[in-house]
Amino acid sequence: MENTGERLAGKLRSEGARTSEFFKGIHGDAWQQVVFSSTENPIWSIRDVFEHLVISEDLLRALFREVAAGHEGAPPGFKVDDANNAALGTLRVLSLAEVFSRFQTGRDLTAAFAETLTSDQFATIGRHPFLGLCTLEEMLRLISVHNAMHVKDIKKSLSQQEK
């Protein structure tokens, strides 16, 4: 019977492959298509959203390691939007091929990390930057949901562009 770590790692790998395939279908100027824009937040292009997925997974994996080791997780009062906006554009110096490579490497590391966790560690409560207090298992599950939400945002933006 598959354990929690193996099951989550499999889900992370399959969702990561779907996300990667989606982004591989974007070409040329479409990468500059605006996905988000508001008075509170800067403009986010499709490339910005993809880079955000790479950066956030790397940062979250580090946070997950801390929670697994018994630490509290994100500090109280952590502002997700501020952190996301501060990181915006930090990977622009990389080629798209390098961003894809970072995405795949990050996902492989997250899945491998999930496979190392014990049932007690999955049940550890910590503070997620968005969810607040929750189990480490819930935190790991959110990565796939996070990616799927942003892919949906991009599809909506692309469909509006076609009209």
What's a concise summary of this model?
The chain has helices at 4-24, 46-68, 80-87, 96-116, 119-122, 136-162; strands at residues 34-36, 44-45, 125-128, 132-135. The termini are far apart. 64% of the residues lie in helices and 8% in strands.
Describe the model.
The chain contains six helices and four strands; from the N terminus they run αββααααββα. The protein is mainly alpha-helical and 163 residues long. The chain has one domain: dinb family like domain (Four Helix Bundle (Hemerythrin (Met), subunit A), Up-down Bundle), CATH 1.20.120. The chain has a two-stranded antiparallel sheet. Helix 2 runs parallel beside helix 4 and helix 2 runs antiparallel to helix 6. The mean pLDDT is 92.
Topology:
Elements (H helix, E strand, L loop, with lengths): L3 H21 L9 E3 L7 E2 H23 L11 H8 L8 H21 L2 H4 L2 E4 L3 E4 H27 L1
Shape: globular
Which second-level CATH architecture applies?
Up-down Bundle
What is the H/E string?
Answer: HEEHHHHEEH
Q: In total, how many beta strands?
A: 4
How many angstroms does the end-to-end distance come to? 49 Å
Unreliable stretches (pLDDT < 50, length at least 5) are none
User: What structural class results from the helix and strand content?
Assistant: mainly alpha
Radius of gyration: 16 Å
Helical element count?
6
Q: What is the CATH topology assignment?
A: Four Helix Bundle (Hemerythrin (Met), subunit A)
Fraction of residues in H or I helices: 55-70%
Within CATH, the superfamily carries the name: dinb family like domain
List the domain count as a whole number. 1
In percent, how much strand structure appears in the residues? 5-15%
Nearest-integer average pLDDT: 92
CATH class: Mainly Alpha
Q: What's the main sheet like?
A: 2 strands, antiparallel
Q: How are the strands of the biggest sheet laid out side by side?
A: 1-2
